[in-house]
Design goal:
This protein is mainly β and about 375 residues long. The protein contains one helix and 27 strands.
């Protein structure tokens, strides 16, 4: 039994201890065990969980109400905001009242050992995603490390983003923490934003964080460059969303293509192909994205612009289901991004691309890592 805030306790009982593994049951019983009448008690969020479910090892910091104490500074916090909401009926509204304001959620002591990631949903309510820094405090109350929300957030739906931060990245794996901190990071006071379903989770079956992605490009090309009628610089220094480099692509004639090749790549563990793209101040170009099979033949083409979602600083997140590309549960050898307007132009800059795992997509929303081209 694990005490939380507000007088609540988290209870997790192994089915093995109850003698109920791999069997059929008909009732759940909670019985008085002291032989005397007891005060009224309250039960919430009673459920069965499975070890293969990413939600099965979770500790809520905010879920319909604050489970940790509100230690905000220079900020107004509404833990029962009714709009916007991603899951349930309430969200945590936050408004910084001056520069340097912060949301700090405090607990006397919390052991992160059972968990791998800090995760939550955030909505800027129609505004651009604010420049926030996320961090954890150690047992002495000192900030351990902070990360930019841009590097760990993915757009989901209805203007919400899913933020998933590996505890290693926060310097907080297998240690005691006392606070979760969300602080303004750009030197300006952002518009109000909303947080939902803030929790520590354990993502089973694979190392947490970016290592579950398979990168085609991340600071450098991991696949061979087989482009045609195009100039590709995989080490451009500007613009960059995350890390220190991006990939600049210039099409020298109409219908030119960026083509990245790997002798063989099995897509079975993945569900989406993601990247971020920056047209460098120009309108987003019309592009086609495709994959090629083991014989080098195009499987299916899709219009990239239908999957593009405007992010910070002129970057667009692109997240394409492999099923739409005909590339789910199969072997591919190439990824193609092709000019679709028949004109010669600088394509833009790509900053990390790759694939997302099936486990990630089986969460309640899709994950997209800004700044990478990957298979997910």
């Amino acid at each position: 039994m694990d005490p939380t805030s507000g007088g609540w306790y988290t209870v997790a009982v192994s089915l093995n201890e109850l003698g109920a593994v791999a069997t059929t049951i008909t009732r759940v019983t909670i019985q008085e065990n002291a032989g005397a009448a007891q005060p009224t008690y309250f039960v919430d969020d009673m459920r069965f969980v499975g070890s293969s479910d990413p939600q099965s090892r979770a500790h809520d910091v905010y879920d319909e109400s604050l489970r940790w104490d509100n230690w905000r500074w220079d900020a107004t916090v509404n833990p029962i905001s009714q709009f916007p909401v991603y899951v349930g009926t309430k969200s945590l509204g936050v408004m910084f009242t001056r520069l340097g304001g912060g949301l700090q959620l405090h607990r006397a002591s919390f052991d992160t050992t059972p968990y791998s990631n800090l995760q939550f949903f955030i909505s800027p309510n129609g505004d651009p995603l604010p420049d926030l820094r996320i961090g954890l405090k150690d047992s002495t109350g000192r900030l351990i490390n902070r990360v930019s929300i841009y590097a760990v957030s993915r757009p989901t739906s209805a203007g919400w983003y899913l933020v998933t931060i590996p505890l290693e990245q926060l310097g907080a794996r297998d240690r005691t923490v006392t606070g979760v901190v969300v602080q303004e990071g750009a030197g300006i006071t952002p518009s109000p934003f909303y947080i939902d379903d803030l929790r520590f989770v354990r993502l089973e079956g694979a190392p947490p964080g970016p290592s579950t992605d398979r990168f085609v490009y991340d600071e450098d090309l991991h696949w061979d460059n087989w482009s045609w009628d195009a100039e590709v610089d995989p080490r451009a220094l500007s613009p960059v969303l995350t890390g220190g480099r991006s990939m600049e692509v210039r099409f020298n004639r109409g219908w030119a293509g960026l083509q990245l090749r790997k002798p063989t790549f099995n897509t079975t563990p993945y569900t989406h192909f993601d990247f971020v793209i920056n047209p460098n101040g120009s309108p987003l170009p019309k592009l086609i994205v495709a994959m090629r099979d083991a014989n080098g033949r195009t499987i299916r083409r899709v219009a990239m612009n239908e999957y593009a979602d405007l992010g910070p600083e002129g970057w667009y997140w692109v997240s394409i289901p492999l099923a739409d590309l005909g590339g789910a549960n199969t072997t591919i050898t190439r990824v193609v991004v092709q000019e679709a307007a028949g004109t010669c132009r600088r394509l833009s800059t790509l900053n990390r691309c790759g694939s997302r795992t099936r486990r990630q997509a089986e969460r309640r929303s899709r994950l997209v890592v800004p700044g990478r081209v990957r298979a997910v």
